[in-house]
Specification:
The chain has 549 residues and is mainly beta. 11% of the residues lie in helices and 31% in strands. It is elongated.
Length: 549
């Protein structure tokens, strides 16, 4: 959209609040400034002088590129400690929530100081809403060199704004809070529960699912599908010694549960599979939140990407179709960090999604490629920080097409087992049974467990049958991981052939498929770090969960 087109009437009127936190009694004194250029706040031996520059007025402004925004007229303010003891301060923004109507994903800012602080270009919505911290606690000394700091703030209407911004309003204040005590700002920080604790306490059903004995009826589906169910699993071969609590998983089920998440600045663009106990790769087990991207990875034509297509004799590949070993698959190298110049990656350049880069992705057999451009859709630094290393299990099976061998429970055990390629599976190269990394794919059991069933085929019936029979309407149409008409990769190998893995078929059933398939999509899956906090949201598509550190 042209920067010259007037999109919105925006007035960002900046006023300032200075707070002094004094002594150990935490007495609070405040003054709100509106239009004053200079003010001094003093109590005892602590004194802060505040001087502001001109206010920013973006009335009838046009959209600006980032380069143009960085050249726009700034708002400046100077904080001086003219007392005889150290002063501690923070900088926050306070939005006029009662009157603002502009989507703050269109508002960008950059805050810098003459002492070297640089926030970088920030999207307002990604940083916070209401009243939120933008500069952590810092210090003003009493000597000439360290008693004063000047901040420069630039705000602009992003060139990503569309016509929904027409005639909208946005107002905010800059708040500077001063404290006589180091760490005084801690009293202003909201106390957040860990995300895992909050979800388990507030978003888990009372019923426990063991051998599918819970009576699930469609009459109470609306309430129950918006919370996770507890699944009690039997240990796989790689989980020996795990306690019953460690073997529990908590999962969302049904056609469309409230498990939406804003992640990587994609509003409601990810969803929670559930909470599992995860080995972080060093032997430490933690309960972690597991996310999956709601839409397929955006690549090439129709989002199709191959699992692998390394030529025979390259890496673990033993045919021109590639290998089902996730640990050196080309899809894994597209998604994860550390493969920037790996010779096994497509075109010798991997980590495209992680690094927000463009290049070639695998498609079709024998080194076939498709273009992929993640410069605007790859993982941002803020999202990368929320993703933790995890041990992904790579066990498989070649027997899965009956109720005696192919239920979700069976697959859960296979995935965490040690069978990767059988003697009949044309495998002469060793396969690893697990892999530690950042980004994987869903398991077949994730898909199988997510159904709530229906009336003619209940959940109990679906879960007691093989996932090979999930083409039944009641099983697939009440499973939120199903995408009608779309082949989806899973991470699990079919052990009966070296170039086959399991997929969720277009019809909703799970079956084996060639890794070089050129008509299949990938949905990245991640485990958030264990110290993640739930910041806001209920999980509804119009009120998605948001997590942060």
């Amino acid at each position: 959209m042209s920067k010259n087109k007037l999109i919105a009437i925006i007035v960002i009127s900046v006023s300032v609040c200075v707070f002094l936190l004094l002594g150990t009694t935490f007495a609070l004194f405040s003054k709100t400034l509106k239009g004053d250029k200079t003010v001094s706040i003093e109590s005892g031996t602590l004194k802060i002088d505040f001087e502001e520059g001109d206010t920013i007025n973006l009335e009838d402004t046009g959209t600006l590129s980032d380069a143009e925004g960085l050249e726009s007229n700034p708002y400046t303010f100077t904080i001086t400690n003219s007392g005889d003891i150290k002063a501690y301060y923070t900088v926050s923004f306070q939005e006029d929530s009662d009157n603002n109507t502009l989507d703050t994903s269109f508002v960008k800012y950059k805050l810098t100081s003459d002492k070297g602080y640089d926030s970088g270009i920030k999207v307002m919505k990604e940083v916070g809403s209401g009243t939120f911290l933008v500069k952590d606690e810092d210090t003003l000394g009493t000597s000439t060199d360290d008693k004063k700091v000047t901040y420069t703030l630039r705000l602009w209407l992003s060139d990503t704004a569309d016509n929904t911004a027409q005639g909208k309003m946005y107002k905010m204040k800059v708040l500077v809070k001063g404290y006589s005590n180091e760490g005084g700002s801690e009293i202003d920080k909201p106390k957040q529960k860990l995300g895992v604790e909050t979800l388990l306490a507030e978003y888990t059903n009372d019923e426990s699912i063991q051998e599918y004995d819970v009576n699930y009826t469609k009459e109470d589906a609306s309430a129950k599908e918006n919370k996770m169910y507890v699944f009690n699993h039997t240990a796989g071969a790689q989980q020996q010694g795990w306690s019953p609590d460690e073997l529990k998983s908590y999962r969302y089920i049904g056609a469309n549960p409230n498990n939406y998440v804003t992640f990587n600045n994609e509003i409601a663009g990810w969803r929670i599979i559930g909470i599992e106990t995860v080995d972080n790769g060093s032997g430490t087990k933690e309960k972690r939140i597991k996310l999956i991207k709601n839409d397929p990875l955006p690549v090439g034509t129709n989002n199709y990407i191959s699992f692998d297509n390394k030529p025979s004799g390259t890496g673990s590949s033993e045919s021109s179709y590639g290998s089902n070993d996730w640990t050196d698959s080309r899809l894994m190298m597209v998604l994860n960090p550390g493969y920037d110049s790996d010779p096994l990656a497509t075109g010798g350049k991997g980590s495209l999604y992680w690094n927000r880069q463009s290049g070639s992705c695998p498609l079709g057999s024998s080194d076939g490629t498709t273009s992929c451009d993640f410069t605007s859709t790859g993982l941002k630094e803020e999202a990368q920080k929320l993703i933790g290393d995890a041990k992904w299990y790579l066990g498989g099976t070649e027997n899965y097409d009956s109720a005696e061998t192919g239920t979700p429970n069976h697959f859960y055990g296979y995935e965490r087992g040690e069978e990767t390629c059988t003697t009949t599976g044309s495998c002469t190269k060793e396969r690893k049974t697990n892999w530690t990394g950042k980004i994987g794919l869903m398991y077949p059991s994730d898909y199988g467990y997510a159904t709530s069933g229906g009336t003619s085929k209940t959940r109990d019936t679906c879960l007691s049958d093989t996932v090979y029979n999930y083409d039944a309407e009641d099983c697939k149409n009440n499973d939120w991981l199903f995408i009608n008409g779309t082949y989806q990769w899973t991470i699990a190998p079919y052990s009966g052939y070296s170039s086959n893995v399991f997929i969720v078929d277009t019809g909703g059933f799970v079956r084996r498929y060639n890794v070089a398939g050129s008509d299949t999509v990938a949905r990245p899956v991640v485990y958030l770090t264990s110290n993640i906090q739930l910041l806001k949201g209920t999980g509804a598509v119009d009120d998605p969960f948001e997590f942060g550190l």
